[in-house]
Amino acid sequence: MILNYLNPQTNYTAQERIMNLIYLGAVRRDQLLFLLSGCLKHARVDQVLQELRRRGCLSTVYTSSRGEAIYFLTRRGLRQIGEDGAKTARHRLTYHVSVTEILCRCIDEFGVHGWEWHSRPDDSDTIPSVRVRAKDATLYLDIDDGLRLSRQLYTTCERYMRLFRDTTPARILFVAANEQRKKYLKNRIRVWSGEGVSFEVCGLDQVTDFLRHIPVTTG
């Protein structure tokens, strides 16, 4: 539905940046304002956000005393964007719903501060989807989309080893959507831990339990 508000003259790259950020499921208000401000054809950003909320496509999960807010697309919102013809949303719907559910759980459990969200790691310079600082290492969550095969997983692990080898200790937590995928991931990443980077796997419904045993710095 948000596509209806975009200026037709907005270039393709700018539209992709906007949509990719929104698909991620967790969007800071300042990010939305920055990305949307130059791309709307007949409405202010606040009007668009208000309309998305009214239609049940967007919910605000946190607002600080300074007015900072984090918005989440609801399942209905994700569906709506998929119906608008956005290819990325159609192909990654389950993935983005998983990210949203995980972040909601983590925020409920540990508070909103300290979490950083990123788009899907599609190139060698991009870190995993979610990052939070723990006491003894930086923890990264790679939300598995269920599509990566063995070779792609090896490539992903190699990339993470290169990215974090010379930085502070890093823990990569692969989050699997179901028990079958969890076993698959465990069998293929167990050989990769070392040189300051460790790899672990847990299920979608086990994320907060896993993090509860780690001193997470969120303040």
Structure notes:
- With 219 residues, this protein is α+β, with helices and mostly antiparallel strands.
- It folds into two domains: 2-99, Arc Repressor Mutant, subunit A, CATH 1.10.10; 116-217.
- It contains eight helices and nine strands.
- The chain has helices at 12-23, 29-36, 45-54, 75-83, 87-110, 150-164, 179-189, 207-212; strands spanning 27-28, 58-63, 69-73, 116-117, 130-134, 138-143, 170-176, 197-203, 216-217.
- The strands form two sheets. Strands 4, 5, 6, 7, 8 and 9 form a six-stranded mixed beta sheet that branches. The protein has a three-stranded antiparallel beta sheet with strand order 1-3-2.
- A hairpin with a 5-residue loop joins strand 2 (58-63) and strand 3.
- Helix 1 runs antiparallel to helix 2 (29-36) and helix 4 packs antiparallel against helix 5.
- It is globular, with a radius of gyration of 18 Å.
Poorly predicted runs of 5 or more residues: 84-94, 119-125
How many discrete structural domains?
A: 2
Beta-strand proportion: 15-25%
The total strand number stands at 9
Topology summary:
Layout (H helix, E strand, L loop, with lengths): L11 H12 L3 E2 H8 L8 H10 L3 E6 L5 E5 L1 H9 L3 H24 L5 E2 L12 E5 L3 E6 L6 H15 L5 E7 L2 H11 L7 E7 L3 H6 L3 E2 L2
Parallel strand pairs: 6-7, 7-8
Antiparallel strand pairs: 1-3, 2-3, 4-5, 5-6, 5-9
Question: How is this structure best summarized?
Answer:
The chain has 219 residues and is an alpha+beta fold. It has 8 helices and 9 strands. Helix 1 packs antiparallel against helix 2 (29-36) and helix 4 (75-83) packs antiparallel against helix 5.
